[in-house]
Amino acid sequence: MSMRRGKTERREILRSAAVAGCLYSVPGLFAEELATPSMTEGPFYPDKLPLDTDNDLLILNDSLTPAVGEITYLTGRVLSAAGEPMRNAFVEIWQVDHLGSYLHTNGRVEKGVDTNFQGYGRFLTNSNGEYFFRTIKPVRYQAGNTYRAPHIHVAVSRNGQRLLTTQLLIAGDPDNDQDGVLRGLRDPKSRERVLVPFKPLEGSKLGELKAHFEIVLGVTPADDDGAVRGGISKPDRVRG
């Protein structure tokens, strides 16, 4: 199989997973009640972006060696406060590799770094507000004298403005109860909105997983005329 064909097939799998993942919609009248809570960006937003910033975090450019980890297809939609799909929204994700290292100078652990893991990806939502990524199931990592529960950082920007910074965590993970960032969400319903089931991908012979995370913005951005202005909004400063 050629590298070009392999990359095309990965894109088709991602697209199919996204379509299969959109199982429900959010009624406009209730969208504000279902808003995705804001969570800390943390100190390890990449200090230097990789040359490859696409939505497949397992393969760097045309490398033949994939990253190590449980392959996961992360899908979802970005919805406005009115429950309407948001097109042309930049969705960014970043997370640790299977060893617990971030794509950040100060975010590496003693065990090393998986040099085949992209660590960061981004995607521009389509007309249905859909996004999709191929990544690995997140793992716990040590933070000071404790551990962070497995999570993926997520940011949504449009027209150069950061609209939401949050995190998604694995529903049912035993580390969730002791995770200080998750416990910082005082409202139990808000916590539930960032807990995402990681389920087996139907028909996969490789033990791949799927996860679906709907992102509902708590504010309605200005009307979109379809033009993309500017790029992804970089954080003004490191927080948390």
What distinguishing features does this structure have?
single chain; 240 residues; alpha/beta; Protocatechuate 3,4-Dioxygenase, subunit A; five-stranded mixed sheet; 3 helices; 12% helix; globular; disordered N terminus; disordered C terminus
Plain-language structure description:
The chain is an alpha/beta fold and about 240 residues long. It has a single domain, classed as Protocatechuate 3,4-Dioxygenase, subunit A (Sandwich), CATH 2.60.130.10. Helices cover about 10% and strands about 25% of the residues. The chain contains 3 helices and 12 strands, in the order αββββββββααββββ. Strands 1, 4, 10, 11 and 12 form a 5-stranded mixed beta sheet that branches. Strands 3-2-7-8-9 form a 5-stranded mixed beta sheet. The protein is globular. Residues about 1-5, about 20-25, about 225-230 and about 235-240 have low confidence and may be disordered.
What's the SSE blueprint?
Elements: H1 3-21, E1 71-79, E2 90-94, E3 120-124, E4 130-136, E5 141-143, E6 146-148, E7 151-158, E8 161-170, H2 180-183, H3 188-193, E9 195-196, E10 198-200, E11 209-212, E12 215-216
Parallel strand pairs: 1-11, 1-12, 8-9
Antiparallel strand pairs: 1-4, 2-3, 2-7, 5-6, 7-8, 10-11
CATH topology: Protocatechuate 3,4-Dioxygenase, subunit A
Mind telling me the C-alpha Rg?
A: 17 Å
CATH architecture title: Sandwich
State the end-to-end CA separation.
Answer: 45 Å
The percent of residues in helical segments reads: 10-25%
Determine the structural class based on helices, strands and strand pairing: alpha/beta
Uncertain spans: 1-5, 18-26, 223-231, 236-240
Order of helices and strands: HEEEEEEEEHHEEEE
Mean of residue pLDDT values: 84
Summarize the biggest pleated sheet.
5 strands, mixed
Total domains: 1
DSSP strand tally: 12
